[in-house]
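Hey L., structure's done. Input below.
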Amino acid sequence: MYLAISTMGNRLNASSKICDLFKKKKKALPIETSFQLPSQLPSWPPGGDFARGTIDLGGLEICQVSTFTKVWTTHEGGLDDLGATFFEPSTVPDGFFTLGCYSQPNNKSLNGWILAAKDVTNDPSRGLLKPPIDYSLVWSSESLKIKQDGVGYIWLPIPPEGYKVIGHVVTNSPEKPALDKVRCVHVDFTDVFENGELIWSSGTGFNVYSPRPRVRGVEAMGILTGTFVAQKDGVDSEYLACLKNANGSRNAMPNADQIKALVEAYSPHIYFHPDEQYFPCSVTWFFENGALLYTKGEESKPLSIDKTGSNLPQGGGNDGAYWLDLPSDNATKERVKKGDLAEACAYLHVKPMFGGTYTDIAIWLFYPFNGPAKAKVAFFNISLGKIGQHVGDWEHVTLRISNLNGELKSVYYARHSGGIWLDTSQLEFENGNRPVAYSSLSGHASYQKPGLVLQGSGNIGIRNDSAKSKFLMDVGAKFVVVNAEYLGSIFVEPPWLNYAREWGPKISYSIDVELKKVEKVLPGKLKRLFDRLVRSLPDEVLGEEGPTGPKGKDSWMGDERD
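Output:
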């Protein structure tokens, strides 16, 4: 009897394990769900070519295609070891041709697009688009011992002389793709590309990337195309390129009314930690509440600052000749350090990116004071004393919006000396299509979700704590566009924007002294690891240098640092 029951139990356990395995195999991948913004896009105010669906690059017209047919999926490797999926466009507008296929990792919702192009020059003798003359097989998954749906084949189109390839082609058959499947682009409309985000890696020297222009910034003309490029053993093909805006036009950039509508649609909610003591304020509030301008050699005679900053030195560079500081009166100084969230204002820089096919809206916040850093060292949570403190703190998030349809595509979260771009499928939203950002406690780095992020390695690092609380800044409620140069003089720069020196004094303190205070509570081995961590931190974290204003950042004219 016991044997029978035991055997039956074993069978039930085995059956249960098989069911669990079956469920595990059948678990839907994130990519099997298509992402959409929470709310429909509004009707944008009229004017220019913004959000009209197509953009003319000087005879080559582009549009966005975001309907796909799945061609091949791998279930291993890449991000989170979930593999990647490869697609071809399923619907392309009449007269337009695709330039490659699309791929993305399986660890996030399907949120893809590629550009299609149309020659509108009516000049058959030149022809801006031509079919490839052949294909070369770059790689196949035939011999790869991984979980996959069928077999994938990655092809490189071979362009005619004087033309370039914008992306690779995927098939699930060893037969070469049809020559009319994609088009190659005349070299006059191409630019140099580089590998962007990793999409998938086979683990055998074959990698798939999302390409981007090598040169990026306000004046750069290279364009994102949404295609993928494949690289075998680290070698790129000489045929590959990205698109370029050949006429350099800014016709698709938003006008003043459209900028206002974009801010209303996408302005973030920024949450501060419930224990935050140092909040943002408006620059005007900072000046009116006693901020002082110091001049090198005349430190005993600081000047009060006009509320617009009109008496600040203009232009030049960060030569150490001037700096700002808190009020000299101790009581006022402590009050101003804390900022004033009710008076806080967002300062917007609106700029063209990727040849005017995108609009970046950089949202800058000013904090009078950056609080002291805290560290996590194994089981110890430690205040770092003066380390991390500095006067004046400029932080930002950036919205990246497609000028083809006005859709928010990604958001940049600045973090100390760097940051990260995240596409909209990876974000939290409130009140429709408004993304959420979390400001870290005391240090004001930006994150897309609450929690603890350690800046370091292993279980030793600088703490970046963020959480949702009653302390909220609605960027759309109070903002000023301080620069949109492509619109001429519509938006006038405030004088303080062209103050190129530091917004806080250089803080003089001994790192050795501060470290000794902290290390008293740490065991020997942890002391050495902690000392190494702190000494490797950039000035932005250590707080040794006062920061420059938004115009002093590389991202003002360039792309964000990732």
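The helical segments are 2-26, 256-266, 283-288, 330-337, 511-519, 524-535, 539-542. Residues 248 and 355 are 6 Å apart (CA to CA).

-- N.
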